[in-house]
UniProtKB/TrEMBL annotation:
Lyase recorded as keyword: no
Protein name (database record): CBS domain-containing protein
Organism of this sequence: Cognaticolwellia beringensis
The keyword S-adenosyl-L-methionine appears for this protein: no
Domain CBS stretches: 108-171
Pfam families referenced in this protein's UniProt entry, alphabetically: CBS
InterPro entries: CBS_dom, CBS_dom_sf
Keyword annotations: CBS domain
Length: 191
């Protein structure tokens, strides 16, 4: 039997993540950058949740977007930290609604106003195609719809794309996706 030696952690800087080993670039298949709900559980929130509670939960868990559901987990919309901002809450307060009465469903983007990538088309697309589309529509999040099965298959997030492309960007500020697109293309052309 071999005797193993334990080592000191003093020179350890960080914890490794799978993304650090992924070799993803603009030519990579688009399915490499989407959160597939067949693999990862969708982040959902009930539409009747108080808006201030939803924002606190999202900030605490570092989540920027949730799928809003009604009874029986029926998909009704999307809520992000942008819609839960103090500015949107104050707009509701100015209409005489009490802060504790403002619900997620009052601030969400309803599914009728949301667009999605078609999963079958995404299978034939590249990361660059997705980045270009998101830039054109100025979106931070986009759902992926499996039309053959009639269900939401996943979501694509600009922050996930930036992380997987190993870009050090803070997408939480008022930065347009166009500037992310420019940085990606500068990085790709310098390689």
């Amino acid at each position: 039997m071999k005797k193993l030696h334990l080592v000191n952690l003093e020179a350890t800087d960080n914890i490794i993540t799978p993304e650090q080993f992924e070799e993803i670039n603009l030519a990579s298949p688009a399915v490499e950058i989407f959160t597939d709900f067949k693999v990862h559980k969708a982040l959902m929130i009930d539409g009747d949740t108080m808006a201030v509670t939803a924002l606190q939960l999202m900030l605490k868990t570092h989540v920027r977007m949730n799928i809003v559901v009604a009874e029986n987990d029926d998909f009704v919309g999307i809520i992000s930290t942008n819609e839960l901002s103090e500015q949107h809450i104050v707009a509701k307060l100015s209409k005489g609604i009490a802060r504790e009465d403002i619900l997620v469903k009052d601030l969400m983007i309803p599914k009728s106003d949301f667009h999605a990538f078609d999963y079958s088309e995404l299978l034939r697309a590249s990361v660059g195609d997705v980045v270009s589309t998101l830039e054109n529509y100025q979106l931070r999040h986009c759902l992926v719809l499996d039309r053959a099965s009639h269900h939401i298959r996943g979501v694509i997030s600009t922050s996930d794309i930036a992380r997987k492309l190993h870009m050090d960007l803070d997408l939480n500020v008022k930065q347009s996706f166009g500037s992310v697109y420019d940085v990606v293309h500068q990085k790709a052309s310098s390689m």
